[in-house]
Structure prediction request, 265 residues.
Amino acid sequence: MPPRAKGAIRLSAKQLGDRSVLDGFRQSGSFKCLFPRSDDSGLDAVLLNTAGGITGGDSFRFTGHAAAGTTLTLTTQACERAYKAQPGPHGQITNHLQVDARARLNWLPQETILFNGSALDRRLLIELASEATALMVEPLVFGRAAMGETLTNIRLRDRIEIRRDGIPVFLDTTRFAGDLNAHLAKPHIANGAGAMALVVFASATAEGQLEPVRRMLPNSAGATLIQNDLLVIRMLAENSFALRRALMPVLQRLNNDTLPRCWMI
Prediction:
């Protein structure tokens, strides 16, 4: 069996005066973290997969903690890539995030691109305390449209769960195996879309953002309140460029008119 890429990061933020600073940090394997300078009081961290992508048998794990009063923004240096895998195990990405009272987490990874033949098992768990705020996005791109790639054979398992005070408030799961291109081509599924995104905003201000966000969305997107403090947005787009063009203004609005610099490159 060929060598497999593995990596893990543990990161926590604490409040020091009026700033959010690094509290604990450990990284290993092919998973690294960068800390660009920030002009605001929050702590920004950029996750980097030095293996260049993920394939069957690879394993990456991130554990993050935003302590009371902090703001922690997490993004990726570039798009993640799920490459063709041999028959057998999936590549695994596991992210576990904890947000204490009066803290804010921004989980803003750039797009994950699925290649034909890929096998990906991805899990995200966000645990919120009372009065905690979280903004998360997970953009997904179905193949490299510019190269004429179609996803005729993939394996995908994706699970996103948000809990508040230990109680599940949001759960989204996707399982698929086979010809994704044919599945997405169906009018009642995705009408041929080449990319999609899920955005969740858990905040006491979520209800007030519903109508302004709806006015920003294209016809292939929708927004709803699951409860007064939980805004959910789903978006389909023709390709990754159209997805990002529609997504960025929404994320900026929900993140106090800012986005990580990596999104601007």
